[in-house]
Amino acid sequence: MVETYIRFFNKKGFLHKKKLNNRLNDDLDNSAYKLGVPIIKYNSFTTPKSDHRSFIKFVKKTKTSIEVAYFHSSKDSKYIHSPRDTPEKCNPENLNGCLDICHDTIRTIDSSKRFLKEVR
User: Fold this and answer.
1) Fewer C-beta within 10 Å: the chain N or C terminus?
2) pTM summary value
C-alpha cells in the first residue's frame, strides 16, 4: 500500500547491520533522486514480515544473485488486508512515483547488462 509516503527497507541488525541486497537499493535510491521523487530508506533490528520473504527464500534455494527490494509504509500498514484497505486510501502521486522509480531502476539495470550472463 502506498499512501502517505514511499519507504523501502535497507538494512537489518543491531550492531552489524546487513543490507537487504547488494546494489538494488542504491539503484532505487539513485532513480528516486534523479526523478525528484521523495523516498525514505530505513533500517530495522529485524526484517519485517511480508511477501518479500518468499522471494528471498527462492533466491537462496536457487543460489542466484537476484536481488529483492521491499517497499513498506509502516504508518499505512494498519489498513493492509483489512476492510479499510480500499483503493481511495492509495495516493496516486506516491503510487506513480513508486512505479516511476521501479521502471527507471529496471531500465538502468537492463542498460548496464549487469546480470546478462546469469539471465541468459
Assistant:
1) C
2) 0.76
